[in-house]
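User: I'm new to structure prediction. If I give you an amino acid sequence, what do you actually give back? Let's try with this one:
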Amino acid sequence: MFGFRTKIHKKSIYLFLLILLSLFNIFPLWGQINFSSPDVSDDSRLLYRMNFKGSLPQDALFVSYLGERYARQLTAFPERMDLLDNNRILQIRNAAGVVRIPARGGLPQGGFNLFAETAPKGIVEETAVSPNGRWILRMAPETHAYGSLVLEDALSGDSIVISSGVEMPGKFFPASWSNDSRVFIYSKLGRLYYCTVNLNMFNSSAGSSDVSSAIIDERFRFIGEGTINSIAWDNQGDLYYLRSSSVFRIRTAELFARTFYTNILEIGSTAGRIPFGYNPYFDQFWIAPDADSLLLLKGGREVFYYPLNNDENNSIISGLPYMVLPGNCFNVRVLSPHTHGITILASIRQNGAVTTQAWRLNPGRETTSFASMNPPQAREASLSPDGSMVLFWGESGIYIYDYEGWKLLLTISTRPAYSCLWIGSNEIITGGAERIERVVLFPGDGARIISRELICLSRAGNFGFETGASPDNINAAPGILAQSSGTWYVTDGRSAWTEIANPRLRPASQISSQYRVFIEDQGLGPWENILMIRNIASVGTFPIFPVTGYELRSGPMEISLCFDLYDDAEGLPEVLEALDQRGIKATFFLGGEFIRSYPGASRDIAEAGHEAASLFFSAIDLSDPRYQIDNEFVLRGLARNEDEYFNATGRELALLWHPPWYNISASAHAAASAAGYTTVGRDADALDWVSHEDERSFGLPCYSAAGMIDRIMGMIEPGMVIPVRLGLNPGGRTEYLFQYINVLLDAIAREGYQVVPVSRLR
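Assistant: Good question. You get back a string of structure tokens that encode the predicted 3D arrangement of the chain. For your 762 residues, that looks like this:
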């Protein structure tokens, strides 16, 4: 059941297609990679599709020039997009890696592979691009949970390590840029640092690996305690730092001018205070454009509005706006233009689907409460540079809204969209499932599309080579054809795709005068199959992609993550979203107190299709000899939990259970077995249940979230059951494992494992 892995070595592997290798340093392991539809031309060009079953199922069309040992990517799925070099270059990140395309249109180019130092992951890696598009911050893994923060020059490709031992990004990337792209702040191990950027950093004679000779020592760039949620920038480029209950303002000019050993707060000033302590591990805040107020999200649910600099006027302020968001909300974001109020958007999971809700606050007006708005059902939104319009996109399509009047101005598309960008106040780039386009808008009430230009194809439906030479150039090789949304396009493999009215598609072939191609089915590392090339004019058979060093999958590489819910739902919305993004079904063990207190959250688990199992009706230690735990008590406790779950969800619990805290006695196990239950143990203990109080009282190690992830990955083996506790620990913790669930899932995927429900594993 557990399977095993053996090394496989191939003789005489052609180590060619190095450009292809540079483009494919990362591939998805939530599913697998496979090749399909190979088509070889008479002039030894090979077309093929690579399919990626990652966070978003996607594919990429490639052409390989077999005689030249060269490959070219022809389509790019827009899972994430960034604008570089003052909006001249479009960078696309997806399961295949990173490519770049001229913003005016073209084919994907090799660019800079941002994942060159990482092992296979299968979900797009987060980065932070400077506002001017010149600089890119990314993470280079050192362990499963720690990495180096790397700064890259987008134009030259030069890079330098800014800091080592930084936690891998969980919910937020651990760095934030100033508006002028001259400085960024980053967090590391609960401390904040700043770094100024200049070209001299990359010209160190010691080389990019010698950080000390290129930038000021990290000790002298220390700001204070906190995470990246402890800071925010206003529109003038000033930095705001929220520590405990005090808000500090640090002007960028002062930041540049500070000298060694100067306390950074000495060059700042107090901008305001909040009436309670700020927890950067759970809270967020946003500064208003005019820097006269802030909006604070407490614990992911409670929204507060506070004016700043109130100490200066000695006036009494009462009736400040306050709102409590639904308990199943996540991905809270804020739109805040210079005028027309502040809008809060939140994703809500209901009835197995994710919806978007919105609220508007207009500070300074007679009504200072949050008014409900009606947004389109799109997961993402972005404010235009002038603040007059909002761009929404998601599964339902792409929409433009007037911000002030909050009305629909224009429907760009009703097809799914994955990433969109403003390239100007009246111009956008849209990344849909079929095409990436540049759209110019006529703004205002009479909004309309002025022009729509193709940048690149996201994917190709049908594809193949043209029959014969091009009519415009009889000496040219046949073009490459691809169909997208019913329209055919052609390229010579080097120039941009152009629309063609009467395509002459040649029937696909797997043989030419020199090569024969075939697909070999085998489970090798992340590959479901391998595209093989046979040189029939000479000798040798080789894969289209080097596969040496990968391990043969001769058994299921599966583990189970079990999410334990005792009496608190903290972390559940984020965990459900992370699992949904990756198409993972897991097992949730629900305690009676949780079901009784959070029936809606119990329904969210059921409607998301996850396996729900029993954590008993009450959180008591069934192994404690002080209690008389007989068969009847265990049977009634399990039955009561079944009834409460059914009353809350209309569904049945799986006949799986584990006692609270995994403390079991032989009699309790026997009683549960008699009732048809399978008792589930834990094979790896992350110690995420250890609190600061346990650390002080019993000397137990209270690991950080990153430390717990590295601990799990040091123990992981096929067939393991690994519990993750949700909810807050009464004994107190600084951070929790569930806050970095993305990092844990990525680490599991990188090692080639798939997460499955316990019932499938057992």
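You can read the tokens as a compact description of the fold. Here is one thing that stands out. The first helix runs from residue 18 to 23.
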